[in-house]
From TrEMBL:
Pfam families: FliMN_C (PF01052). One of its GO terms (molecular function) is cytoskeletal motor activity. It is a peripheral membrane protein. This is Flagellar motor switch protein FliN. The keyword Cell membrane applies. The keyword Cell membrane applies.
Length: 148
């Protein structure tokens, strides 16, 4: 990570920590216990569905393949909601038009990676930029099952 990346990560962690402390007296939602410190990279063994299976260390070749996979870029999307409208109504939209979404105000957003739901979260603002605090993360086993 570059110095700018480290600085930005520290700013986000500090801001989210402050926001979590400020809301601690509130609802105490699932997102308030999140640790935004440096996370250890997940090893392939953590994704094993059978916890009683033997955990042989990865060979050099396996680790090299895993490292290559870990560097693949993915697209992460936060979805507020969606709506279906006719082409006629679509063509009538102009500045100031309002499109009603199916989601209720206050409901968590969906967090998708390459179109697959991985978590739910809430919008936060840090340094005049939007971010998302994850409130409910789909388990690793469930996410892997969805990929198959």
């Amino acid at each position: 990570m570059s110095d700018n990346d480290n600085k930005l990560a520290e700013e986000w962690a500090a801001a989210l920590g402050e926001q979590g402390a400020a809301s601690a007296g509130g609802t105490g939602g699932a997102g308030s216990d999140v640790d935004f410190g440096e996370a250890a990279p997940a090893s392939i063994e953590q994704f094993n569905e059978n916890p009683t299976a033997s955990k042989a260390p990865l060979t050099r070749e396996e680790r090299k393949k895993l490292d290559a996979i870990m560097d693949i870029p993915v697209t992460i999307t936060m979805e507020v909601g969606h709506a279906k409208i006719s082409i006629r109504n679509l063509l009538q939209l102009n500045q100031g038009s309002v499109i009603e979404l199916e989601r209720l105000a206050g409901e968590p957003l969906d967090v998708l990676v390459n179109g697959t739901l991985i978590a739910h979260g809430e919008v936060v603002v840090v340094n005049d930029k939007f971010g998302i605090r994850l409130t409910d993360v789909i388990s690793q086993v469930e996410r892997i099952k969805k990929l198959r």
